[in-house]
Every structure is written in C-alpha cells, then in structure tokens.
Amino acid sequence: MLSKVQIMLTQGTALTIELTLCSLFFGTILGIILALLKISKMRACNIFSTLYIWIFRGTPLLLQLFFFYYALPLINPHLKMSGFAAAVMTFSFNCGAYMSEIIRGGILAIDKGQFEASKALGFSYLQTMWKIVLPQTFRVIIPPVGNEFISMLKDTSLVSTIALLEIMKTAGNIGSRTFKVPEMLVLAGIFYLFLTTIFTVVFSFLEKKLSRYA
C-alpha cells in the first residue's frame, strides 16, 4: 500500500506531466502559426511574429508567469484565472515562441524542389504546407522538440511560486512538515530525473523510427 508521501508525490508528478503535455500541445500549434507568419511575404505578419518571439524569448519565464497570474487580474478582474490555467497559458505562449523558431528552421531545411513540385501539381500554399512540408518538417525537428519538452518539464518547477502542487511544491511541503527538507529535495530531483529519462528515451525512439523514412 502506498504511503501518504508517495501518493502526494505521485499526484505532483501527474500534474507536472499534464502541465507539460498541455503546454507542448498548445505551444506547438502556436509555434506553427508563428513560423508560417514569420516566413510569410506579408510584412505585417513577419513583424508581428518577430515581435512576439522577441518578447517571450527575451523575458524570464517566471516574470511571464507572475504577469498572467498576478498582474492580469489587477488590470482587469475578469481576467483572473486558476493557477493551472495561468500556468498552461504562460508555458504555451513561451513554448510557442521557441517552437516557432524550431519549426521555421525545419521548414527552411526542406528542399525548395518540394515547393516547386507542389505548385506544379496545382496545390495551394496551405495545401503544400499541410500535406507536404509540415509532415517532413516534424520528422526533421524531433531532436530539438525533445530538448524543448525536457526543458519545459523541468521549468514546471516554477509553478510552485503560484501554489500549484507539482513535484517541487509537493516535496517542499512534505519536507517542511516532516523536517526532512534535504531528503525531500533529493527525492524530487530523482523524480525529475526519472521523468526526463523516460521522455528522452521516447524521443530517441521516435527519432530513430522516423529516420528510417528519411
């Protein structure tokens, strides 16, 4: 039977994984949009994407988290949200900025002949991107996406500052109650190492699997 400490850490781990997966999902969608805007020939789209990436890559993630959780409700009370919603929004926006550059690099790595061939077949720009370019791009960008995922997984420890009970906050609470702070911090580190190892193996498997079709 699991002890209370194990149950609490398991729940914290589940929240960490849920937060990371949600953020990567929404961040990837946002990253695709931003990447397409940045390579667009429309100057306004290019400027918007560049400005967005500049802001979210140039400011600390913790500052962004505090802005969405603490500052927005002060600007407008109707913008007040739960800690989890604020965390997902912050991490998604931040992830989108990094993913856009990763995806843009992947798109630019695709041979220009692919674009010319699709144009000759009568494909529109969106059809070319959706059916031909992006599927090949995702195969190319698996390694950097894996690095971004692992980085985000570790960065979820920052949500302990807004009282979300992920691994770090849970370990800190247990340590304070049991007067075993060093031991709980080491245990939290072990949990993070366990998670990052698992997902590193998963992304390595995906990379090898997809490289067969290169």
Structural write-up:
The chain has 214 residues and is an all-alpha fold. It has one domain: Orthogonal Bundle (MetI-like fold). It contains nine helices and no strands. It has helices at residues 4-38, 43-58, 61-75, 83-109, 112-120, 125-140, 142-155, 167-178, 181-211. 31% of the residues are buried.
Provide a concise account of the structure shown.
82% of the residues lie in helices and 0% in strands.
Describe this protein with a few key phrases.
214 residues, mainly alpha, MetI-like fold
By CATH, the topology is MetI-like fold
Helix content bin: over 70%
Number of helices: 9
What do the pLDDT scores average to?
A: 85
β-strand amount: under 5%
Q: Can you tell me the residue ranges where pLDDT is under 50 for at least 5 consecutive residues?
A: none
Task: State the shape.
Answer: flat
Main CATH class: Mainly Alpha
Q: Termini, distance in Å? A: 48 Å
CATH H-level superfamily: MetI-like
Task: Describe how the helices and strands are arranged.
Blueprint: H1 4-38, H2 43-58, H3 61-75, H4 83-109, H5 112-120, H6 125-140, H7 142-155, H8 167-178, H9 181-211
Helix pairs in contact: 1-2, 1-4, 1-8, 2-4, 3-4, 4-6, 4-7, 5-6, 7-9, 8-9
